[in-house]
Amino acid sequence: MKIKNICCIGAGYVGGPTMAVIAKQCPNIKVTVVDINQARIDAWNSDDFNKLPIFEPGLAEIVKEARGKNLFFSTNIDKTIDEADMIFISVNTPTKTYGKGKGMAADLKYIELCARQIAKASKQNKIVVEKSTLPVRTASAIKSILDNTGNGVQFQILSNPEFLAEGTAVQDLLDPDRILIGGGSSEKDQKAVDALADIYANWVPKDKILTTNVWSSELSKLTANAFLAQRVSSINAMSEICEKTGADVREVSKAIGMDSRIGSKFLNASVGFGGSCFQKDILNLVYIAKSYGLNEVADYWEQVILMNEHQKNRFSDNMVSTLYNTVSGKKITFLGWAFKKDTNDTRESAAIKVADNLLNEQAKISVYDPKVSEERIYTDLDYLNTRSSDENKSLLTINKDPYDACKDSHAITILTEWDEFKSYDWKSIYKNMQKPAFVFDGRGLLNKKELEEIGFVYYNIGTGN
Ligand code: NAD
Ligand code: UDX
Asked: Which N-terminal stretch is annotated as signal sequence (predicted)?
């Protein structure tokens, strides 16, 4: 079976880039990304490619090449579903904020709505692909909805989790470490697996396309994120020991990373991991383990999150104690708000928690981030409900120019590892600051020796003094 027409439900950080790359690599397949959010679809259709809703290096060029040829963005969901042979579900699966499993389980209401809509709109057989990250065994719930509420047509359900990281999404999609496809064992299911594998085979070597049963595929995604986040929490735990003992966490990372069994990637100590995935997916894993009565397993993984919270809190605590135990009324500059460089995404960014802690201490914060909008920053803070929106606006200001943001500051803190911060004129920044001038580098981005020579008091995660 050759797929000619794809519908992707969800035009977000995964649906948008993933479908743009499929469209680019498969000119004979029509790809339409649909969403209920009209503003988001309008932004994807914008003539100004700087206004796409998502910033990812290389993405605008691909959208420019494919859009209007075989890549489309639309809010006409039913029609697009009906015309497609294969439907990807790529909607958000956030942590539940209500009811049973509140604060832990994945909220599957958007997934269920998609399943019901697919069932209603489909007048021919379809392959339905789980692209969203889902709790293990969700495919059986989707199947039950499709089979019980549909128009008598047949649905094959596959799991095809996405492993892209933001900031490198295009590169990760063009050259993935692997493609994972989970499917059932019946002949029809296997044909569906082959149809999806054939799409990726247009640009991914066959030996990187891995097929498994559905449950292994669903669980592998949660496992991968848990392992990755665990590495960050592990090195962050060591960073605290380094600060107490005079060891340097960068040297420790290098030394252990040269062991081929450990490997060198994902060992950068930081102010704490952020992003929409790690925390949500580990909480989901913890919830699943608890629901099977596997309390030791649940406790083990929960510790990864607790360590991450600790890392963010101890970073802001250290700022307050270093600044003579009070930041009340002091201007503190945040360089970076995004959860990592090369993205405009701020979900679960460590900057949000650090800002909230410092605002509780009555600091005055000034933020500069090269890609994050003013509106986003205030929304992130307001969402915490710690103080009123007006208070947040009066205590935190946003600058379009980094030098203005740093002027008259008592301390600068690096919360995102944007490359441009390295090339700033740190001498002139120093001149315009209150003295002593402090830098709290939450990303190990800047050169300690150079900054100390200029006159800064420099604090780096994981370096003892
Ligand atoms: P997102 O919030 O950026 O996008 C989801 C989109 O789905 C939104 O635009 C929303 O309006 C739309 N949507 C929700 N319900 C809908 C419905 N019923 N019909 C049509 N549209 C609907 O989310 P995301 O970051 O793209 O993540 C999507 C999924 O992919 C999640 O399960 C996430 O865990 C997973 N994932 C994310 C990443 C990442 O880096 N962001 C990486 C791998 C996997
Ligand atoms: C992650 C997974 O990497 C990806 O495979 C999955 O599909 C989605 O979740 P993402 O959250 O986009 O991707 O970015 P990632 O590069 O994993 O970084 C997550 C967070 O960890 C960031 O805040 C980053 O700064 C932090 N991090 C990462 C560290 O603090 N140290 C490291 O060594 C690596």
From this structure: none
